[in-house]
Write a structure and sequence with these properties.
Shape of chain B: elongated
Order of helices and strands of chain B: HHH
Strand content of chain B: under 5%
Radius of gyration of chain A: 24 Å
Number of domains of chain A: 1
Low-confidence stretches of chain B: none
Largest interface: A-B, 23 and 17 residues
Strand content of chain A: under 5%
Largest sheet of chain A: none
Order of helices and strands of chain A: HHHHHHHHH
Mean pLDDT of chain B: 82
Radius of gyration of chain B: 19 Å
Number of strands of chain A: 0
Oligomer: heterodimer
Low-confidence stretches of chain A: none
Structural class of chain B: mainly alpha
Structural class of chain A: mainly alpha
Largest sheet of chain B: none
Distance between the termini of chain B: 61 Å
Helix content of chain B: over 70%
Chain lengths: 229, 95
């Protein structure tokens, strides 16, 4: 009886949804939205070599702002719940090879992260990717040198300042009458150069700093509640 | 053709790693397998012409989240131990 009911419901779904399936036919060209992004005058308007970044930062900038907000909320909740700082841990000494390799790699990874978010409008990547790469350098530092001082204050203020600058830049566009998160508040520059695409590299640098600082803070919270077992 | 072979292999590897992550008895192996799924997924994204997503997946999916899993695992184990010890001496912990 129960199985019959399930079958009946499935059949009902099929009868409702089949017209959608049968009426679907693939199209040969770009969709309307993609055409809008890829049209020549709009490419010249944003003047960014990497069109994906232009779409993410300007046309869908609100979406990026929402993502940053979600990350901020996550960091805030983790900081709220993981309050207890444990006593000093007695850790096994790290091997010399690991320590030396970490010393060599940490600056290079950090530099790669900064490169990724500064060049977001020219090469693949952007603020989130760069921030995540910087945070992975920080985690390597935590693992290699566990007793190193970590300035919570500095990372928190860096995060707050970059968040404020990001929203401020976005609102500045609206005040100038160009639109929220418009990139034309700065001169657009020459296509394909580092200082081009208006405010995109500036905005993405601050997003990268914010994401990197936030993820580092989260990781440090998790590290600081560890204890001997 | 090569593209198809490589992506199929990557997909099979990802599936195998996910099964290990679900069914392995040792938690540490399961966590590392989860990280490996992220790593293979990032290579897959690279082949599917999404290098920016590949970067995010490699840094977060296979790097940071694995470390966070390990931190949480360590913390949970420690709580377990405390709980077991307090059971043995038959006392209610103050915390």
């Amino acid at each position: 009886m129960k199985k019959l009911l399930v079958l009946f419901i499935l059949a009902a779904f099929v009868s409702v949804l089949y017209p959608l399936y049968s009426s679907f036919h693939g199209s040969t060209g770009l969709t309307e939205v993609s055409q809008f992004y890829a049209s020549k005058e709009n490419i010249e308007k944003v003047n960014s070599q990497n069109l994906v970044t232009a779409v993410v930062v300007t046309y869908r900038g609100l979406d990026t702002l929402g993502e940053v907000t979600i990350l901020f909320l996550t960091a805030a909740i983790i900081a709220f719940f993981l309050k207890k700082e444990s006593d000093k841990r007695t850790l096994r000494k790290n091997s010399e090879i690991f320590k030396t390799a970490a010393k060599l790699l940490i600056p290079i990874i950090t530099m790669l992260g900064i490169y990724i978010f500064i060049n977001g409008h020219l090469t693949p990547g952007g603020g989130f990717q760069g921030g995540a790469v910087i945070a992975s350098a920080v985690i390597l530092m935590f693992l290699a040198f566990p007793n190193m001082e970590f300035s919570h204050k500095f990372f928190e203020s860096l995060e707050s300042v970059s968040g404020l600058v990001y929203v401020g830049l976005a609102a500045f566009g609206a005040i100038l009458g160009l639109g929220f998160l418009d990139n034309a508040i700065l001169p657009l520059g020459k296509f394909g150069e580092l200082f081009s695409a208006g405010a995109i590299p500036v905005i993405y640098s601050f997003v990268g700093l914010k994401v990197g600082a936030e993820l580092s803070n989260i990781l440090h919270k998790f590290k600081s509640v560890q204890a001997d077992n | 053709m090569e593209f198809k072979i490589i992506t199929t292999l990557l997909g099979i590897l990802m599936l195998a790693m996910s099964f290990i992550a679900i069914y392995h008895k040792k938690m540490i192996v399961a966590v590392i397998a989860t990280g490996a799924v992220g790593l293979f997924a990032s290579i897959m994204y690279l082949f599917l012409a999404a290098p920016d997503v590949a970067m995010t997946e490699a840094a977060i999916g296979s790097g940071l989240s694995t470390i966070i899993f390990f931190y949480v695992l360590n913390r949970i184990r420690q709580n377990d131990k405390e709980g077991r010890e307090s059971d043995e001496i038959d006392e209610i912990p103050n915390k």
